[in-house]
Amino acid sequence: MIPPEKVTLLESLVFGQRVAEEEPRLEEYFVETLLWRKILRGEIDIVYGMKGSGKSAIFHLLTTGRNMPAGIRVIPAEYTRGTPVFNAIKTDPPPSEVQFVYLWKLYVLSLIANDAEILKVLKSDHAELVAELGSVGVIGEDKGEILKKALRYVDTIKIPNLVEVGISHSQEAEDKRINVDRAMDVLNHILSKTGSNVWVLFDRLDSVFDDNSGLEENALRALFKTYRDFSRYDHICLKIFLRTDIWKALTSKGFREASHITQSETIEWSEVNIVNLIVRRILSNPNIATFYHVVPEQVLANYDEQKKLFYRIFPDQIDAGSRKSETIRWLMTRVGDGTRQVAPRELIHLLNQSKDEQIKALELGESVPDGEHLFSPAAMKRALPAVSQVRLEQTIFAEYPNLRQHILMLESEKATQTLETLSKIWNVDEGETLKIASTLVEIGFFELRGEKRKPEYWVPFLYRPHLKLIQGKAEEDEYA
């Protein structure tokens, strides 16, 4: 007989959505970390993080005005949901970095100028600027139309590249276009008089690039140069949320402006943060607090209490044995990639999948989890393949289609490989093997281990179930 109380609790248990854009209860779940507080204090402008690490969650919450200091106006440069605004750039992007800088400045200028209070002042005291922007068509439009019209304007004025055409031609072209720097000075002055500050938020930038590295490089270099130029304004600031791998790719080619980016931080999830995230989501269900006789506020105020509640709900270990890790560490190692970083996206997926597997198990008459536990080790293990499949298909294969075949060729092989064994599996020489393997390390599919002269490539647990990888190290004679 299915134990009705445990099934009812499991059915009502909510861990939330994997993607911030789809999460209606984000404010309730959000973990206010030191990084969040530093952003609110204005100490951090650039936030890096792996995909699924929570960048968009911060972006979303900033747009809601959550605990925002007085006098701060937040203007998102991107929609929080739906088709990304920046998709418009794919169709006809500016061909040069110089034009991209102008586009970003014009776009930010137009977003701020459309703020109701600022536009009122502009119409009263700076009618000529309103007329200029109006001639471009960016006044009274939403951000999607603003970007499209800004793109068309940049294309028509044909901003020259200073290196190619020389100063005289550049000056002539400049006289015929909106002076965005002078216009930003006007906006900054208006904000200083009202004692206000504007934060313009950039997120979902990876939607622009697909597999176009040239577009990616131009767009991001220009955006960060725009960020640098805007440092002269006391009341206008860009806040940029960017994936770590994209930033690394940009700086690996040499990027002088990187040395000027000091107000930045990378999102990293420690064990304490992970436990807090899980328990916070569990306690969002009043039935759980009642069943376990806990007061949510008291639990969330004390890490030891959070950990204690976690182990009342989950088993102590997934794999039995004195040398096996506790469940929290097991969870982190099963959703971490080759960079050893944990993303909440995969963690939440694993928890939701574990819940479904546990309910199915009880419906089929399997043993009820021991004591107060709602989850059995077996149900949590059965959740892994679905998480592995989604991560591979929706992240790795979707973003790096050129690597798909090489990864699939590893199916049913050992989890640890060498250059020699990979060369035989992929049927390419060792030089090409090193190139492919290094790329797989960069994207977190492999973790680089072993000695420098004899590297080993270890596949994280996250990717193993879908590929049916076998624990252990491949030996060269296996492929003789």
Keywords:
five-stranded parallel sheet, Arc Repressor Mutant, subunit A, alpha/beta, 3 domains, globular, four-stranded mixed sheet, 480 residues
Short précis:
By secondary structure, the protein is α/β, with parallel strands linked by helices.
Description:
- The chain is α/β, with parallel strands linked by helices.
- It folds into 3 domains: 45-262, no CATH class; 269-382, no CATH class; 402-479, Arc Repressor Mutant, subunit A (Orthogonal Bundle), CATH 1.10.10.
- It is 54% helix and 9% strand.
- It has helices at 4-12, 26-29, 34-40, 55-64, 88-91, 97-113, 116-125, 127-136, 143-157, 162-165, 167-175, 180-194, 206-209, 213-229, 244-252, 271-282, 286-291, 296-300, 303-313, 327-335, 344-363, 377-382, 384-399, 404-408, 419-426, 430-442, 464-467; strands at residues 46-49, 72-76, 197-202, 236-243, 264-266, 414-418, 447-450, 455-458, 470-473.
- The strands form 2 sheets. A 5-stranded parallel sheet has the order 2-3-4-1-5, sandwiched between helices. The chain has a 4-stranded mixed sheet with strand order 7-8-6-9, with helices on one face.
- Helix 6 (97-113) crosses helix 9 (143-157), helix 6 (97-113) runs parallel beside helix 12 (180-194) and helix 7 (116-125) crosses helix 8 (127-136).
- The longest helix has 20 residues, at 344-363.
- The termini are far apart.
- The model is unreliable at 162-170 (pLDDT under 50).
